Amino acid sequence: MREITWPDSIRKAFVARGCVFAEGVSLYNTAGGRGVRNMAKMSCVKTICLIFFLTCGAACGSGSGTAQDSYNLRVPDSYDPDHTYPLIIAMHGYGDTNTNFESNSGLTTQANGAGFIIAYPQSRNRGWNAGGSGFAYLTDNADDVTYILNIIDEISSGYSVDANRVYLTGHSNGAFMAYYLAATVPLKFAAIAPVAGTMMMDDISASSPVSVIHIHGLGDTVVRYEGSNEFPPVRPVLALWREKDGCGSAVVTVSSEYTLRFWAGSYGDVCVYEVNGLGHTWPSFAANEIIRFFSSHHM
């Protein structure tokens, strides 16, 4: 990893926003005492984060190359080309890597056991252009929708993928991208599983019904569950998808760890795990619940 010498003015600005510097170019947020990696503190989009990227320049770089060399692909041990398999696209958070996300999420083991093919794409601009002017700026207005669709097509050309069982998940900026793809690409995805993100669109009329399992920490101060000046609140987003999926009343389950709200629908289901005290991180139970949800939903 190439290291950057940070000007004192930028260091002081980031420290003032609750960030500390680790080796190289990575930033860690210490809010809540969890020390979890965040999206370069996306609340800095209007101020500090813009300075960060203008200063970073070519030193930060961006992923390049073809779709073929820009994702990690895991095929289940039981793979048989004479059968079709569900496919998951799992997208990392801002400033993270696909390899790190795979290691931290626990998705590969769960996907392998359930017979899913799973791919971890690497973004080309440190993150995903997932709707909104901030993401467009930070990703140099990259066409990440086409990028992800090309990866799906490439995998489908080499493996037996069930076109009715293609799924999306992601953490943070990757969660935003899951919502954005579901909202803008109809008749493609059976279900999505955003974790610690939200959706930058308030109109999903162009989409088709998609089942949603959303997981969010109520202690998240980066992408707040209740919303902020930078990001919309989660509840209205879920309401849009409930309407799209023809959902009825919620069934609510409360535990010491989270509150689960589940809405069954005529065209899809929506559920949310509101996790007590969790910050901007991927909870340990997420992989199991996501694979379980995906296993019971298809187009």
Map the helices and strands.
Blueprint: H1 8-16, E1 19-21, E2 27-29, E3 36-37, H2 48-56, E4 71-74, E5 85-91, H3 98-105, H4 107-114, E6 117-121, H5 133-138, H6 144-158, E7 161-171, H7 173-184, E8 191-195, E9 211-217, H8 234-245, E10 247-254, E11 258-265, E12 270-275, H9 286-295
Parallel strand pairs: 5-6, 5-7, 7-8, 8-9, 9-12
Antiparallel strand pairs: 1-2, 2-3, 4-6, 10-11, 11-12
Task: Characterise the protein shown here.
It is built from 9 helices and 12 strands. The chain folds into 2 domains: 8-59, no CATH class; 67-295, Alpha/Beta hydrolase fold, catalytic domain (Rossmann fold), CATH 3.40.50.1820. 30% of the residues lie in helices and 23% in strands.
List keywords for this structure.
alpha/beta, nine-stranded mixed sheet, disordered N terminus, Rossmann fold, three-stranded antiparallel sheet, 299 residues, single chain, 30% helix, 9 helices, 12 strands
State the end-to-end distance. Answer: 42 Å
Mean pLDDT: 83
CATH-level-4 superfamily name of the largest domain: Alpha/Beta hydrolase fold, catalytic domain
Biggest beta sheet summary:
9 strands, mixed
The CATH class assignment of the largest domain is Alpha Beta
Q: What structural category characterises the helix and strand content? A: alpha/beta
Q: How would you sum up the global shape?
A: globular
- For the record, the count of structural domains works out to 2
From the 3D coordinates, which CATH architecture of the largest domain would you assign? 3-Layer(aba) Sandwich
What share of the residues lie within helices? 25-40%
The fraction of residues assigned to DSSP E strands is 15-25%
Radius of gyration equals 19 Å
Number of helices: 9
Sheet with the most strands: spatial strand order:
4-6-5-7-8-9-12-11-10
Uncertain runs with pLDDT below 50, 5 residues or more?
1-68
Number of strands: 12
